[in-house]
Amino acid sequence: MKKVLALIGTLLIAAMAFAGCGGEQQAAKTDSKTLKVGATAVPHAEILEIVKPLLEKDGVKLEIVEFNDYVQPNLALNDKELDANFFQHEPYLVNFMEEHKEVKLKNAFGVHIEPMGVYSKKVKDLKELKDGAAIAIPNDPTNGGRALLLLQKAGLITLKDGVKEKATVQDVTGNPHNFKFQEVEAAQVPRTLDDVDAAVINTNYAMQVNLVPTKDALFMEDSTSPYVNIVAVREGDEKRPEIQALIKALQSKEVKDFINEKYKGAVVPAF
């Protein structure tokens, strides 16, 4: 009898040890499948909400961390506080890494295009802008250059040949109406609309103040825009299973249908 009790005791201890080990292994597995992605609220975080259940089917838990600026998401990703971020286009990322040499990030894949637009509360047509009118544009190098290129495409100004997205207000070679440019942080440009004659606004920030790009913008980038919004990761992380699962989910039919139905042309799928 004593031998039987001893054997039972030994088996119970072994079973408890195995269960504890299995629990630790399961916890480690769960932790390894958690994906923390930084994003600006609209439309990036909204799109990520759609992929949450898709990722869960692949055993990946998505944690969305919202940001309201264009600097901290890249710094946080580089510092390993995030696994990926979703808020920017590649020209911005390239310029960011040129300015922050310690940052080593990579474009993992493209998701959508957010056409930049020109908005105004003072005029209904850009032809109505008066001489000396004030126009607000983003103050970061890439989006500022993008805004100036849009104003050139609209026929309002002329830029120095070859400057492309690196254009600055110093590169304006033709300004027949003597427009005055106010450079403002991208997230704050919509707040200037009451004070300026026109403003060039990124779509995600326009939508946050209830502007509908396809209805309210006086002039917009078209679907040929090179500024595809991307998911960025640290160099070497592109092949991680969790990142591959994120690519699959973000480039799914469910996401494409959501973008087309919700944003109605203000955001365009790039896949």
Written description of the protein model:
It is a single chain. The chain is α/β, with parallel strands linked by helices and 271 residues long. The protein folds into 2 domains: 34-115 and 226-269, D-Maltodextrin-Binding Protein, domain 2 (3-Layer(aba) Sandwich), CATH 3.40.190; 117-220, 3-Layer(aba) Sandwich (D-Maltodextrin-Binding Protein, domain 2). Helix content is 40%, strand content 23%. It has 9 helices and 13 strands. It has helices at residues 2-32, 41-57, 72-78, 90-99, 141-153, 203-208, 213-216, 241-250, 253-263; strands at 34-40, 61-67, 84-89, 105-113, 117-119, 134-138, 158-159, 172-174, 180-184, 198-201, 219-220, 228-234, 268-269. The strands form 3 sheets. A 6-stranded mixed sheet has the order 2-1-3-12-4-13, with helices on both faces. β1 (34-40), α2 and β2 form a beta-alpha-beta unit. α2 crosses α8 (241-250). Residues 1-5 and 11-32 have low confidence and may be disordered.
